[in-house]
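FIELD: query
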Amino acid sequence: MNIKDIFKMSLTGLSTHRVRSFLTILGIVIGITAITLVTSLGNSAEELILGELKTLGPNNIFVIPGRQDASFASGSALLTDSLKEKDVDALSKKSNVPGAVKVVPFVFGPVTVSFDAENYSTTLLGGGGGIDEIYGLETKDGEFFSADEVYQKAEVVVLGSKVAEELFGNSDVVGQKVKMKDKTFRVIGVLEEKGQSPFVDFDKVAIVPYTTAQQYILGYKYIQRIAITAKDEASVAGTVKDIEQTLRDSHNITDPDKDDFFIQTQKDLAATLSTITSVLTLLLASIAAISLVVGGVGIMNIMLVSVTERTKEIGLRKALGAKNSDILSQFLVEAVLLTGIGGVLGIFFGSLFSYLGTVIAYRFYDINFPFSSPISGALLGIGVSTVIGFIFGIYPARQASKKSPMEALRYE
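FIELD: result
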């Protein structure tokens, strides 16, 4: 018997019990749907994050206080106070870091901005002159503070578009006075809508000179982050080495293993975040794959029932000359067809739900989540479902092929 005949008989056997066949593959459909959905959303999240990272600029280098903890990223480093004003001065000297064209210190923390009876809790971002260039920020009204205003600890603030809207509505904002920590600040600018960056939502931020933030709001003298712009992408690696040496000299560190700071570039951040999203996607996909095993057991069970129900058919076919290998092939092909169809349906529904998820994220949460349905995920789904069908179908197929034709024909 050729493969075409086996395939045709397998389809006939499955179509005879359509409802049972559908219920049999339901576990496979759910499992492949879950895997496809997780893989698709994982890829979408990675594309979104890496896209946001590109807004930081490939020439930007970030110095962060504390030691980098590989097991906990950089969250604990923000609690340290190893970076000081003297470090900013040292890094600003051309003789120390010749490849740097801009050095901008940052501090940040929670704050409540008040205007009349209106209050808005948000993130305070204190920066040096040039903070707008580091993050690619533009104002739709007013302007950013100058280097002189940073030096003078000027009581001025640039508001994110959402903060301005919540506090002032449609009124003119520039020139108005707001309060933060019982201190009055003059609004000198309102940002264009920009949305979430890898570190802060610029629509919901209040930006002041970092010296002002330290003196009047946060109450500390250390720096939480220093951004350095290299003259071009090719000079980033050399600039990083100069930064490391300058800070070690400033902190009297001779052993690199005892550095009380670490450095991140766009490339470093992209690699770290890509690894994190890949691991999370793999973990979630592995959990979803458990349902495939359950579905495979269900297929084995139904195929065994099918073998028993079709005992007379097996006996008749053997009496007419069918070999054991023909019977085994037929039932094995039936199992693989079931799981293969389940895999295709799972990929379809997984991609559909993923697309609907991106639409919901955009319409209801204003997150521009890119839709991604990787070919590798589809091929993996079909491959896994086919393998499941083969593994869990081979035992019932062998049981069918081993039946004696005489006993099968006498079976009631």
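FIELD: remark
Residues 70-78 have pLDDT under 50 and may be disordered.
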